[in-house]
Design goal:
Structural class: alpha/beta
CATH class of the largest domain: Alpha Beta
Distance between the termini: 59 Å
Number of helices: 17
CATH architecture of the largest domain: 3-Layer(aba) Sandwich
Shape: globular
CATH superfamily of the largest domain: Ribokinase
Helix content: 25-40%
Radius of gyration: 25 Å
Strand order of the largest sheet: 5-4-1-8-9-10
Number of domains: 2
Strand content: 15-25%
Number of strands: 18
Length: 491
């Protein structure tokens, strides 16, 4: 068994990874709304749009996952000379990802638009040109890869069969990487895995492995046999097969196979899980982790993202929390979740709850010394929603608001006390004087504040009501305040 301490060490080393990804980049649009009527023009639903999110997809999601792990990600890809291509470039820049994007005016940037109502996807619209890129574009991409190769710890070929990774470009990249002694990890498409001959590892899903091998992978032994056929016939030394509820199988030429059980946690959305797998696996390989350890970390990361909405990423602290709960190769349990999370993690969790039809509520405060007034507000807040997120002012913020003698308890202690309360689902410490940035990220349906505030005085009132949310003013418990409590303690 691989000890968790070794996985912790490999996880911490990921920040030193430098991974170059070549592949089909996309823009994923998620349009959320409500369907209340049928169109008078045709027997189709009318979606009243409430909000939408734009996220990097395809190879873009791969590098977003690499960056989320703390590693250095670089992307070589092709976009159209259009607005979607510019948005892809902007999102990559915001994530700190070095992107070498070749513009091809003859193509449109790939956009996948998903329309969602009541947690159900009712329509997907794709905008793409899946024809092979021209020889001229291929040459320019190869030159960009050659320029970015020095210093890389691993290369990913993210093949969505949209025209960039032609047979000749795949062969050229693998030859360049082998000459530089850089491992190449491939996320394949199609039935012909021989086109990736010479790569270091390949990460097919169950369906892809069955199609390429012509064999069933319904059991561990069958998966091993199918993967070994690819290893031998395609001259690819390692196959990491993702098998949905049956977990993963790592099969190599010389070592015993490793069959890794699926993690035990709620599955909400499997979109992009394969991107997370190859991003984590390649990042770990890039810093010298064994393929077995890399596969174990990839399995944990995949289990995290399937519990999130849309194309998502896994962060080191989330993987570390999974390891802290007693992750092991033979038996895994991800049901214990930390309530104290970052702003980004809270936003992702809120999206997942909301997509399943639940109502997200929010309240905030310093919560320096918890008293009955706080308890009453939190109970009323929880009663107004399905899931309650509590924002807590950081120590620096409390000092600015309350004076140099405050807080009495530091932010870690205050977050721990709130996390122990049953009515609280998530706790987020924020550095600003107001929770406005947190509200913008979480977008709660219900914002709860004490009844002493007028509606227009509530921070976030205009934001929450702008998208149809509501403000709940909690009834206050007379005679209780942190200031009074401190005064009594001082005698």
């Amino acid at each position: 068994m691989v000890e968790n301490s070794a996985l912790f060490e490999d996880l911490r080393r990921l920040q030193g990874a430098r991974v170059l990804c070549i592949g089909d980049v996309m823009l994923d649009r998620f349009v959320y709304g409500a369907v209340d009527r049928i169109s008078p023009e045709a027997p189709i639903p009318v979606l009243l749009v409430k909000h939408e999110k734009h996220m990097l997809g395809g190879a873009g999601n791969v590098v977003a996952n690499i960056a989320a792990l703390g590693a250095k990600a670089e992307l070589v890809a092709v976009t159209g000379d259009d607005m979607a291509g510019r948005e892809v470039a902007q999102q990559l820049e915001q994530l700190g990802i070095a992107a070498s994007l070749e513009k091809d005016a003859s193509r449109a940037t790939i956009v996948k638009s998903r329309f969602i109502s009541a947690s159900q996807q009712i329509l997907r619209v794709d905008r793409e040109k899946a024809e092979a890129v021209s020889k001229d574009v291929e040459d320019r991409v190869a030159a960009r890869v050659e320029a970015a190769l020095p210093g890389c710890g691993a290369i990913i070929l993210s093949d969505y069969k949209k025209g960039l990774l032609t047979d000749t470009l795949v062969r050229r990249v693998i030859e360049m990487a082998r000459a530089a002694d850089v491992p190449v990890i491939v996320d394949p498409k199609g039935q012909d895995f021989a086109r990736y001959r010479g790569a270091s590892a390949i990460t097919p899903n169950r369906k892809e492995l069955e199609a390429a091998s012509g064999m069933s992978v319904g059991s561990d032994d069958a998966a091993r046999a199918a993967a070994m056929k690819i290893v031998i016939e395609c001259s690819i030394p390692a196959v990491l097969a993702t098998r949905s509820q049956d977990g993963m199988s790592l099969v190599t030429l010389n070592d015993a196979p490793a069959h890794i059980p699926a993690n035990v946690r709620e599955v909400y959305d499997v979109s992009g899980a394969g991107d997370t797998v190859i991003a984590t696996f390649a990042s770990a390989v890039a810093v010298g982790a064994t393929m077995r350890n890399a596969a174990l970390l990839a399995n944990i990361a995949a289990g995290i993202v399937v519990g999130k909405s849309g194309t998502a990423t896994a962060r080191p602290e989330e993987i570390e929390q999974a390891l802290d709960t007693g992750y092991a190769v033979e038996k895994q349990d991800y049901r214990r979740k930390s309530k104290s999370v970052t702003k980004q993690a809270a936003a992702e969790r809120a999206d997942a709850w909301r997509a399943r039809g639940f109502t997200v509520g929010f309240t905030n405060g310093c919560f320096d010394l918890l008293h009955p007034g706080h308890i009453a507000t939190l109970r009323q807040a929880k009663a107004a929603c399905d899931y309650l997120v509590v924002g807590v002012n950081s120590d620096a913020s409390v000092k600015r608001l309350k004076g140099p003698e405050r807080p009495v308890q530091d932010e870690t202690a205050r977050a721990a006390v709130l996390s122990a309360m049953e009515m609280v689902d998530l706790v987020v410490v924020f550095e600003e004087d107001t929770p406005m940035a947190l509200l913008e990220a979480i977008r709660p349906e219900v914002l709860v504040k004490g009844g002493q505030y007028k509606l227009e005085e509530v921070v976030g009132y205009e934001l929450v009501t702008s998208y149809g949310g509501r403000i709940v003013r909690a009834e206050m418990e007379d005679g209780f305040s942190t200031t009074n409590t401190i005064a009594k303690m001082a005698g």
